[in-house]
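[worker-b] picked up task from shared queue
[worker-b] task type: protein-ligand structure
[worker-b] ligand name resolved to glutathione; SMILES cross-checked against name lookup, match
[worker-b] sequence length check passed
[worker-b] input payload:
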Amino acid sequence: MSDLILHHYPSSPFSEKIRLIFGLKGLAWRSVLIPPIMPKPDVIALTGGYRKTPFMQIGADIYCDSALIARVLEARQPTPTLYPASVPLAVPFAQWADATLFWAAVTWTMQPAGAAALFNNPAPEVMKAFGADRAAFTGTMRRLTLADAAVQLRGYLSALQQQLAQGGPYLFGDTISIADFSVAHALWFIRRGGPVADILSPHEALNTWLDRVLAIGHGPNERLSSAEAITMAATAGTQAPTLVEAGKGFEPGQAVTVTATDYGSDPVAGTLVGLSADEVVLRRTDERAGVVQVHFPRIGFQLKKESST
Ligand SMILES: N[C@@H](CCC(=O)N[C@@H](CS)C(=O)NCC(=O)O)C(=O)O
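[worker-b] inference finished, payload out:
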C-alpha cells in the first residue's frame, strides 16, 4: 500500500491537478475524501489551521499547496519530469494559471447555470451554505465580476488555443510540464459547468489538448478514512529530515506562523524546523494526530515570528 495520502474532494480543481500528476508518474496513492466547506475538524487536526484543498500526507508529514505537492511527487518519481530544462517558463506559467486563469474560470463556471450543473441542481440551502463558506474563505480578496471573468477568460482561451495550434502536443511543445497540469485543472472545472462549458467550444486545439491531458487519469488509488489517516500520523514515529538554513532570517526552534497571502488565510502556528528558499516546515502537536510537521512552499505564504506578547 502506498504511503502517499491525498486529502481532497472530487470537484476540487487543484485536487484534479494532483490526481493527474499521480497518473502521469504512475504513483499509487491513498484517497481521503474531505468536506468541501468548513467545518473540517480532521483536516485541521493534521494541518493546524490550513483549510485549502488538497493537501498530502506522508506519515506525520503534511504538505500544503499543490505547487509543493507537485515538487514532492517529482522527488519521489523523477520521470516523466514536470520541470523539463527545455521549458524554463513552466513554473511561472503554472503560477499564472493557478492564480489568474483559475479565478477567471471559477467565476465564469459558478454563474447560476454552471453552479446548477456542478452541484446537480442543489437545494437553495446548499448553495447558501457554500456561498457563505466561500465568502469567508476569500475574505478581503476582491473577486472578479462575471463580466470581468467572461472577457478575461475569452482572451486567455484564445491565446492558449493559438499556442497549441503551433503543434503541441503539449503547451510548450513536445514535453509535458507542470504548466499543462495547472491550465488543465482550470479548464476541467469549466467542462463540469454544463451549458457554460460552451465557452470552450470554439477552441478545437485546446479541447484536443485537454482530452489528452485528462486521459492521463489518476493512477491506482484506494480509499482511506480521515480517522485512519490521523491514526497513521500519530503512529508514524518519524518525520522527514529538515534543516533551517543559515542566513534566511530565522532560527530553528523559533515560534512562527505561516499564512497564505491570497485567500484561505488561516494562520498555522508552530515551531520552525525547516527553512530554505523553497520550503518552510513547522512542527506542531495535535491531540489526535500527535507531533506533525507541516510543510509549505515559500511562494504564496507569509512566514512570521510569533510575537511573545
Ligand atoms: N494555492 C493552493 C490553492 C488551493 C485552492 O484554492 N483550493 C480550493 C479548492 S480547488 C479550496 O481550497 N477551496 C476551499 C476548500 O476546499 O475548503 C494550491 O495550489 O493548492
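[worker-b] attaching auto-annotations
[worker-b] The chain has a mean pLDDT of 97.
[worker-b] releasing lock
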